Amino acid sequence: MTEKPLQLALVGATGSVGRAVLEDLEARDVPGIPRLLASTRSEVDLLEFRGEEYEVEAVSERSFRGCDVAILAVPAAAARELAPRAWANGCLSVDLSGAFRAEEGVPLVVAGVNDADVARGSVRGVVASASGPVVSLALTLAPLHREAGLVRVVVTVLFPASSAGRAGVRQLEREMVALLNGEEPEPSDLSHRMGMNLVPQVGAFLPGGSTEEEAAVGSELRRLLAAPGLGITATAIRVPVFYGHSLIVNIATARPLTVEAARAVLRASPGLKVIDDPAGRVYPMPMLAVNDDAVLVGRVREDASQPNGLDLFAVADNLRRGAAGNAVRIAEAWVRQRLS
Ligand SMILES: NC(=O)c1ccc[n+]([C@@H]2O[C@H](COP(=O)([O-])OP(=O)(O)OC[C@H]3O[C@@H](n4cnc5c(N)ncnc54)[C@H](OP(=O)(O)O)[C@@H]3O)[C@@H](O)[C@H]2O)c1
User: Fold this and answer.
1) Which of 153, 172, 239, 320 could bridge to 232 as Cys pair (CB 3.0-4.6 Å)?
2) Tell me: the pLDDT tens digits for 96-129?
3) Ligand 1: which of 63, 96, 101 to mutate, most ligand atoms within 8 Å of CB?
4) Which domains can be identified in the chain, with CATH numbers?
5) Separation of 320 CA from ligand 1 center, angstroms?
6) In terms of pTM, does the model score above 0.90?
7) Using a 6 Å CB cutoff, which residues line ligand 1?
């Protein structure tokens, strides 16, 4: 926790991630009251924080004055425009949109994995928060990599409706109501039908057939683990779950790692909860992850089809852990590093 109040501008306060930032600040008792900002078109005037109502302002030239950090929980186009304006006022941007993730001079950070890189935010005035599932994946795999050296990762990421923001949640709600009433839902601009379906496309397709989200998993994880030679292949699927992303993970390590040793390493790692008692039908599920700050890990088992192979299953609250919690921890690290 930061000692000094965090002078925070929260841009996109009215959105799914913005509201999760407020919940994270409340739950972890982070001192300070954020400035709540949204677009000029926002339909929300007031938001509750610690039992009081605060006004939501439209972003303006004055918004970043006196702030140490701006969390940008907005679409990429808005983030690109706002980050330089914030930095002109000496305010670091923590970007959640992905607009800066691949840019030169912008550190990519998962708090708890590579916190020291936050200091490099001073190069461009921006720190990029890794994409939601990669936050959970990096927290889970970093300790196993340190212990046994990862050689290869095969991961399937199940994206919930809320990973497409408020619009995604509304779409799945509408579809489920229609389907349970025996009607075919109205088609949506956003994606194929999510209700009672699986959609094997998250993000635009790239040459070669992977999607942007799938490619990002590999490039981000290699950077975060400082493992440029790590082999990774990812498949991203949108599933009819409202909250919580799930990761089906298969790894191969350079050195042998027993199931018990892997569980012990994961248990000792901050930010993870091992929930793994198959005989008692105890394992991670998205419904258990909602509003939890931890990544839940279980179903750890040997993959006998390859040398030093392991399988596991991990889930986390995509809004709270994958996005908001990481951004707030980066903001706290920036302020701490500035004060030390
Ligand atoms: N959802 C996830 O699981 C997740 C995870 C990691 C990262 N992200 C990223 O986080 C960002 C926000 O996602 P979300 O799920 O919270 O979306 P959302 O629910 O659609 O909310 C979008 C927010 O952005 C604001 N906004 C839009 N245009 C703006 C502008 N020009 N200036 C200022 N504010 C503007 C909206 O405010 P109004 O009230 O004015 O519309 C709203 O507060 C996106 O870039 C997304 O890719 C999302």
Assistant:
1) 153
2) 999 999 999 999 999 999 999 999 999 999 999 9
3) 96
4) 8-130+322-339 (3.40.50.720), 134-318 (3.30.360.10)
5) 14
6) yes
7) 11-12, 14-18, 38-39, 41-42, 44, 59, 73-76, 78, 96-97, 132, 162-163, 165-167, 318-319, 322-323
